[in-house]
Design goal:
Number of helices: 6
Number of domains: 1
CATH superfamily: CBS-domain
Order of helices and strands: HEHEEHHEHEEH
Radius of gyration: 19 Å
Strand order of the largest sheet: 1-2-3-4
CATH topology: CBS-domain
CATH architecture: Roll
Distance between the termini: 24 Å
Number of strands: 6
Shape: elongated
């Protein structure tokens, strides 16, 4: 069974932005790096929240605010409201969270340290990979490639 740490082994970067930056600056970072969310930090580098495309759409664009004038802290989801996981959580546990809580990104904390962020796409890819391996093993068994 795959774990969150297995996904993180393939992901090296954690993209973040200061809470006092503009939403426009955050959108540029997300576009340039083809990501859907940024970790939000305070002036000391402490994690204070997450800003996602969904936050932008619902709290800026639909609210009639300007992304060049609105600050990230005004639309981010605060840390205490974020669903998080640990490196030892299973992919299945993550799937339950993203589907049950309707979130697309899960920050990964090892104790109090942020060690990564996984997306619903990462989780689905890991699950498909897991299923492909199982199908291959079963096919080999059925075809008699394993001797007893």
């Amino acid at each position: 069974m795959k774990l969150v740490r297995d996904i993180l082994d393939k992901k090296k970067d954690i993209w973040s932005i200061n809470a006092n930056a503009t939403v426009f600056d955050a959108l540029v970072i997300m576009k340039d790096n083809d990501i859907g969310a940024l970790i939000v930090t305070d002036d000391k580098g402490k994690v204070v929240g997450i800003m996602s495309e969904r936050d932008y759409a619902r709290k800026t664009a639909l609210a009639g605010k300007s992304s060049k004038e609105t600050l990230v802290r005004e639309i981010m989801t605060p840390l205490e409201s974020i669903h998080t996981v640990k490196p030892g959580n299973t992919i299945d546990e993550c799937m339950v969270i993203v589907t049950g809580k309707h979130v697309r990104h899960l920050p990964v904390f090892d104790g109090t340290d942020l060690v990564g962020v996984i997306s619903i796409g990462d989780i689905v890819k890991a699950k498909i990979s897991e299923q492909e391996f199982l199908i291959e093993q079963l096919s080999n068994y059925i075809a008699g490639k394993y001797s007893t």
